[in-house]
Design brief:
Its main location: periplasm. It comes from Rhodobacter lacus. The protein is an alpha/beta fold and about 325 residues long. It is built from 14 helices and ten strands. Strands 1, 2, 3, 4, 5, 6, 7, 8, 9 and 10 form a ten-stranded mixed sheet that branches. Helix 1 links the parallel strand 1 and strand 2. Helix 5 crosses helix 6 and helix 7 packs parallel to helix 8.
Length: about 325
């Protein structure tokens, strides 16, 4: 079954905001046909883009949004996220038990995890030795220098520096933040680029040989060249989680719940794993994967217990301004 049940054909449409390509091409059409809704999908490019719109409008105009977990936490802390009624989400039963233990929202009180994974190092095994540490990226060898990229998104750029220094990925101590900033400024001199979207293509072409990468994006490179590999450095990773949040301001709550529940259907959620090449926290979906997929993309096989050993990015409150200022200083440095 797709969802909680069908809705009246007269039900008003709901607005879902998501990243491009994060749902099956026919997901909205299928949901509408099953429920009698006229849901519409709008796209956002970044968490920051949709958060700006949601905060400015106090959530109005949107019903369900896909955002990464620290941003879901911000929506909750601002009173914009719905307190979830689990009775309206029976497909929550498909999730791994670990999916209810996420630090940003224990018990899935205001967010439902959609995908999860790690951030590590993606590299060309035929062009460089396997990296073992974040320092292999931040202070690369002469052979690798100038052929590396890092993520430009604030939280993940800083996380690489924090992990290399042995700090929390949510560090707010000013002295530690300044130390991390200085290390990232030094690393900037060795980079080919900051790149959030085409780094795997640079690996495929050989323009880059070592990049900071979300695991699923590294998988896109592996699809094109089997000499591309993924490793989590010895200092660890963050645990990233992309979530679905129902807005408290939604005027279409029943439809919103039905949509989120539909996305948790085993077959529907399996599409995400098979096509986005991200792990999903849905036990039914993951157990339905063809074993050859995990053989091709080994990071897809990481068990939930290992994922939860890593620290999640969290809402750092007022320190977010300090983070933004720090990244601005890094980007402006020579």
């Amino acid at each position: 079954m797709l969802g909680l049940g069908t809705l009246s054909a007269a039900a008003e449409p709901l607005v879902i905001s998501n990243w491009d390509g994060y749902l099956a091409p026919d997901a909205i059409e299928t949901f509408n046909a099953a429920t009698g809704n006229s849901a519409e999908l709008v796209l956002h490019a970044t968490n920051e883009e949709i958060m700006g719109k949601l905060i400015a409008a106090k959530g109005k105009g949107y019903d369900v949004v896909f955002v990464s977990s620290p941003f879901a936490e911000v929506l909750h802390n601002l009173g914009l996220a719905e307190d979830l009624d689990h009775a309206k989400l029976p497909n929550l039963a498909n999730l791994y038990p670990e999916a209810t233990e996420l630090a940003h929202d224990k018990g899935n009180a205001f967010s439902v995890p959609y995908t999860w994974g790690t951030t590590g190092l993606c590299y060309r095994a035929d062009l460089t030795a396997a990296p073992a540490s974040w320092s292999d990226l931040l202070a690369p060898s002469a052979e690798v220098s100038g052929k590396t990229t890092m993520l430009a998104t604030e939280r993940w750029l800083l996380a690489a520096g924090f992990l290399a220094e042995g700090y929390s990925v949510n560090e707010t101590d000013l002295a530690k933040l300044e130390q991390t900033r200085d290390r990232l400024i030094a690393a900037k001199k060795t980079l080919l680029a900051y790149d959030d979207t085409t780094f795997y293509s640079k690996l495929v072409s050989g323009e880059a040989v070592l990049v900071q990468a979300w695991d699923g994006w590294c998988n896109y490179g592996i699809t094109e060249n089997n000499q591309i590999k993924y490793v989590i450095p010895k200092e660890g990773s963050d645990l990233w989680v992309d979530t679905m949040v129902i807005l408290k301001s939604s005027e279409h709550k029943d439809a919103a719940y039905a949509f989120v529940n539909a996305m948790l259907d085993g077959a529907t959620h399996r599409w995400a794993a098979e096509n986005i090449l991200y792990k999903v926290p849905n036990k039914v979906a993951m157990e339905g994967l063809d074993p050859s997929l995990i053989a091709t993309y080994p990071n897809m096989g990481m068990p939930p217990s290992e994922l939860l050993a890593f620290e999640q990015l969290r809402d750092v409150g007022p320190a977010q301004r300090l983070y933004s200022r720090t990244v601005s200083e890094i980007m402006a440095s020579n």
